Amino acid sequence: MLEKLTVNPLNYVEDLDSPIGVYLRREIFKKETETDKTLKRELYEEIVADQLADGSWNQLFVYTANNLWNLALLGYNAENKSVKKGLEWLLAIQRGRYRGYPGFFLSPNKRDARVMRSTFYGEFGPGCTIFYQTTYAVHLFHMFGFDGNRQVQRVVKSYLQFWTPDWCGVWCTINVLRILIEHPLSAKSQQVGNGLRYLAKRQTKNGTWKGFPFYHIFHALSRAPHVLAKKQFENAFPLVVKRQNKDGSWGRKERETDAFLVLDALKNFDAI
After folding, report:
1. For domain 2-271, is the CATH number 2.160.20.10?
2. What is the pLDDT at residue 57?
């Protein structure tokens, strides 16, 4: 679907000196260069220099999760020392219950809620603190190959017992639906089907979803091999073309994140 875009997004991506830039050049455009290999090492050293001995970054979930996501984008796997330490810290904060259901992640750092509300980086948005942290953590374990981890499965099973798409706010809806779509225990569940039908009812004629973050929904649907997801994705694509900036990016304030969400979504959709 890249060829249907008005502007070649590589024009924008080529200049990104960031984990997102490295990922997009490598995975979307297949143009990893020697410069990228050097940049990858430099970014890695910069990231791990701030990691604390307990495995976290500043003992904040938001910073820890975002840095683990960055390491995944750079191509580091679960065998990496810093990744291991970060994932261990995440498991250490999996001590919460939500209305009696076990397995939820919740940092004891009270600053996390405030930092989360001002952060729009990556695949997850600022919903309820416990849902944001739990879904983001489950996604990171998915990225690093730990879908079979019992502690991760525990929270997925909890969501399958109580979650409905109108349970909470907009960000909580899309954050939870993301992990249910991608996790093997829930990918073909009734809850995912209910979530896709819920979104379908809210998709407007121009392709947006009323009240929902457009690029995040577009990206989440790209991972769902379901006819309801495919139809909504295709309905939204003309707006993706229309909204592309002249430099090849998308969005205004969070252009890197929005470019990632669009381009990675197109890759996912083509793969399905």
Report:
1. no
2. 98
